[in-house]
Amino acid sequence: MTTWLTPFQYDYMFTAMWTCTLIGGVCGLLSGFITLKGWSLMGDALSHAIVPGVALAYLAGVPFALGAFTSGILAAGAMAFVKMKTPVREDAVIGIVFTSFFALGLLLISLYPSRVDLKSIIFGNILGIDQADVRQVVIVAAICLLVIVLKWRDLLLFCFDPNQARALGLRAGFLHVLLLLLLSATAVAALQAVGAILVIAVLVTPGATAYLLTDRFGVMLLLGSAIGAVTSFIGAYASFFLNGETGGCIVTLQTLVFLTALVFAPKHGLLAARRARARACPVDISS
């Protein structure tokens, strides 16, 4: 029993576990909106687009969250501008913008390799997080959580049917920007835990898993948040014994949970679909 409690005896592991749990819970909560809106590609774009902001923040000696958030907003604005001014399809615009920002970030890192840690940005470094970065993550996560709690009904209607939201007097443009801000801020918070490469996984997988388990959006949000928090905690805990990357452990565990739901979900799982087909087309064995 003592062996299993060993990670709790180290301050850096305890900090990593509860920070990952907080990040995972907030990402899982936002994941429901991203899944409903179909913004997985947008999340991927923003998670890569924050890299140059992080690099510049390290070079300038300012909080990484400020640089990352600013970079994400600039990338989102660039996508919106190009989409409005050109006939290029949205998926192509997203691909162009996020790869350009990501390339700029890698260029900055290669030009100043001694001052910017590439591995920490790309793969995360939750075990080496300092107290200042912990405070940034907590503040960002708390703001995102508060906004989602206050605006989740409006965001739900906007994600489900923007035209209906406008008809009911909601400001769809404001909600669009708000969701982008939440996505950017949450990506910044998750950067320390899983890195820029895997941010999209923790922003999508919990919501996709919850989507398979329930048809009620409120329940989906709670399930997604619970899945994100629990898998993040267990992943961080397991990384101590596996001596593996914390982000890799978290995302691998979330993927296994998703695959389990994909097969065994009571209504939308593969086995449930097979049983439904069997009931719809019973085999006549009398002949």
Tell me about this structure.
- By secondary structure, this protein is an all-alpha fold.
- The chain has a single domain, classed as ABC transporter involved in vitamin B12 uptake, BtuC, CATH 1.10.3470.10.
- Helices cover 80% and strands 0% of the residues.
- The chain is built from twelve helices and no strands.
- The protein has helices at 11-37, 40-49, 51-60, 64-85, 90-111, 118-123, 131-160, 162-167, 172-213, 217-242, 246-264, 270-280.
- Helix 10 crosses helix 11 (246-264).
- The N and C termini lie far apart (61 Å).
The total beta strand count reads 0
Q: Would you tell me the overall average pLDDT?
A: 84
Structural class: mainly alpha
Spans of at least 5 consecutive residues whose pLDDT stays below 50 are none
Strand content: under 5%
CATH superfamily: ABC transporter involved in vitamin B12 uptake, BtuC
What is the number of helices?
12
Provide the number of structural domains: 1
CATH fold field value: ABC transporter involved in vitamin B12 uptake, BtuC
CATH architecture label name? Orthogonal Bundle
Largest sheet, described in full? none
Kindly provide the radius of gyration, computed on alpha-carbon positions and rounded to a whole number of angstroms: 20 Å
Give the topology string: H per helix, E per strand.
HHHHHHHHHHHH
